[in-house]
Amino acid sequence: MTLAMWPLDGPASGFATYLTDWTGNGHDLSITGPYSWARDRGYGRESALRLELANDSCAETAGPVVRTDASFTVAAWVMLEQTTANHTVLSQAAAKRAGFHLRYHAGSDRWQFGLPSTGKGASPTWHRVRSQQPPELGRWTFLAGVYDVPAGKVRLYVDGVLQGEADAPPSPWMAGGPTLIGCAGTTKGKRWSPLGGVVDSVQLWASTLHPDRIADYAAA
Q1: What is the structure's pLDDT at 121?
Q2: pLDDT of the residue at 46
Q3: Beta-bridge partners for 113
Q4: Cα–Cα separations (whole angstroms), residue 94 to 44, 57, 98
Q5: What value, to the nearest 5°, has the Cα angle with vertex 132 and ends 50 and 117?
Q6: 4 phi and psi angles, rounded to 5 deg
């Protein structure tokens, strides 16, 4: 089941979608901080969303989209423009930290999909998978993160190719805050790790997406 889909077609695309959730589930986005519309990956039109580093620019829903205590898949096209720090593509807020993140991890110079063991306390265990290669700046990349509760695994795909898997949190828990595109944050409004790049065609599913479907999306 598709929970939310944001094509992020800007005003020059000819489609008045902008920040609208195409599924009809009502998970429309609002943006805090400076942004602009950028050329997308396929058509040369201003039909992708550039979120700036300044003022922690970030797009968010009014409430949670995925249940982080159940299986889900998240995916997005992203163009990373700098590797100065951690840069988040997609996350969902909780009281103290993100319930999951799909991001660039500066310490390892790799893409990363991760979930913390708990939303409480100061030092959770992060269950994460990193890409096998560093990202290429200025290149469109398709990222997908899968949380498979029955299998107890977390998986990361880059351009449709499985990068690896790790053990999932032993006790799934729900992050009840908004879904965030371009940053991580808490339910109290704190934001960090802004993307400072371009994002397009973001989707979330309430299930594990089959690897063949992930490959199809990456090839589209």
Answers
A1: 73
A2: 77
A3: 102, 129
A4: 37, 19, 5
A5: 80
A6: -155, 145
